[in-house]
């Protein structure tokens, strides 16, 4: 359970992406594809997931003017300070959020998403950063102790799943298992073949680096088959909805 927000790491950015794909016969591939990406050094997963889901649909509906309005709102936000209750305007809504402190006790609502109260113009976010660890790690709970040992010993781990969201949440959950200790190695919640370090991570001439990767491209099934620890996540089976693929 994370009680207070992790500190920003100046060496990394966190990216939150809203992707839209719409059929369009006028385009060669048959689809219009576009993404809105929010970059920040603040590791507030729950908070920024809500923000990107708020501003991206407005952009696709109203264009750049909505992004300019959202940026104008965010420029008015005060710096984050633990223990401070913040009222943050964003595109006609007010977000109520409080950054916890080290002395706070775990909240009863930790890990849940934003809660809308009183009216659609008021949103209360119980936690800026916590993931629902039980939900994120449900597919591999039977191997929980083994996975915890792999994470704390900085073993190379690749998480393969059907969607970026599923992979990213799982990787973030794995890293969070060590709290209050800081995960000492690198981690990539969503890694693609276009990454500049693709060759470094897929080479067979040396041992896999001590990193946790989240991937969705089936191509990685072959290129990373030499990695010692692979977590495979699958869609819930229609015939047996409680069964997922697990640790391989």
TrEMBL record:
GO cellular component, as recorded: recycling endosome
Listed GO MF terms: guanyl-nucleotide exchange factor activity
Pfam entry (one): DENN
UDENN domain mapped to chain residues: 1-248
Family statement: Belongs to the DENND6 family.
Family annotation (PANTHER family): LD41638P (PTHR13677)
Identification of the protein by name: Protein DENND6A
